[in-house]
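Section 3.1: Structural characterization of target chains.
Under the original work plan, the team committed to producing a structural model for every single-chain target entering the pipeline before any wet-lab resources were allocated. The record below documents one such target. The sequence was received from the expression subgroup and is listed exactly as submitted; it comprises 274 residues.
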Amino acid sequence: MSPSACARTDHSLVELRGVTFGYGDRPVLRDLSLTVPRGKVTAIMGASGGGKTTVLRLIGGQQRAQSGQVLVDGQDVGQLDKAGLYALRRRMGMLFQFGALFTDMSVLDNVAFPLREHTDLPEALIRDIVLMKLEAVGLRGARDLLPSQISGGMARRVALARAMALDPELIMYDEPFAGLDPISLGTAAQLIRRLGQAMGLTSILVSHDLDETFRLADHVIILGPGSVAAQGTPEQVRASSDPLVHQFVRGLPTGPVPFHQPAPALEQDFGGTP
């Protein structure tokens, strides 16, 4: 049996084991361990700057852990060469914050981009696949429009169609609800749930929208200062007695996450030398 097969667990698609990572001399994750259940929607939440988007970057291989392991279906992302990482990314979809569509490409060409990049399919088949993906998100009629000609909510749905283009096993969403009106937000949440169930996807969702995310997620992970503060079902997380989790789920201004950024004493700053 191969080492990757030994490392794989049937119930989880993604696993972080003792991961430490920082930017320069600023630590972000400290000995972080977590698992993402296969075929479920997992939400990663927590205060700003807690490393949520960094976790997505480590899973996708944009960043490499300074210590520990990031495993995707048993493969250690940090040990993959360029070809191995390229192959693994074909099994992932990513919905970036605010969509990140190519502004000079039509809706159709945006969704077709990963198919043209990663496959040798004939153009006629690519077009048919793209139209099916756009139909799934209700935007087949917008195929010839530019991103500047559609709303923010529509752009997020186009980005979702693009993330699904290669029929991935894993889709990661970075703040998919940010800046959306209530109708667009509800539509996006419904699509994430419905498409995930229909396609058997494993989904990782980073969001600050507590109510919508708790309605959508099967599994919730709350990150504290570089580590997991709580995890479980939404009901279990809401019932957590951890002070940081209590502050986060209730939106309290005071608690373990301070209002003030650490600074010198007032008497040192005011009237002091620059």
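The longest helix spans residues 182-199.
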